[in-house]
Amino acid sequence: MSEPKQIATLPPLEELHGAVPLSRRTGEPRRPVVLVVAAVLLQLAAVGAMGAYAWHWWLAAHPASYGRSAWLIGWTDPAPGKWLSLTLEVALAAALALAAGAAGIAGFQAWNGWRWARWAGLVALALMGGFLALTHWYAAMPVGLTLMGAGLLFLPAVSRYFTQWAEVRGQRPQPYRRPEQILYGRLPRFR
């Protein structure tokens, strides 16, 4: 009788060992296209909110259109240049800072692989909606961009990306090993 033949097999793939495939260029997990689109949409939402605020300022700079420059200004009908109008302008600037800042932070932290960026995207959507409620319809475009960007963060490809980042961050770096001997001056091979 002959011996049974051994089956030739290949070594297991890197992914089967649980190792995260890293980009050779960056050393980080590979970003899916969906994540890139989501991050760009959230950053564009922040820029769009700044544009809406700039348009409000343009309308507010002219006395004839000051009353319709923002809904908040129209509801209170303050006299231009008085303390109430200045307080409302500070409130609109604070609303912009919160909304645009939240959208920008959500996009940036999603790019960096932090899972909490999903919830930051939802907070950004709520703040952007509040900014829309205070300004005018021209602030609806950033709300739509924030909605699309935050929605894309909940897709499975982005979930895998966040999981890969959690694995990469969970790996401990090799501890520093003190050398046995430290040589000062010329090395022995050059003496």
Automatic annotation (TrEMBL):
Keywords: Membrane, Transmembrane, Transmembrane helix. It comes from the Bacteria. The chain crosses the membrane at residues 33-55, 83-107, 119-139, 145-163. This is Uncharacterized protein. It comes from Tessaracoccus lubricantis.
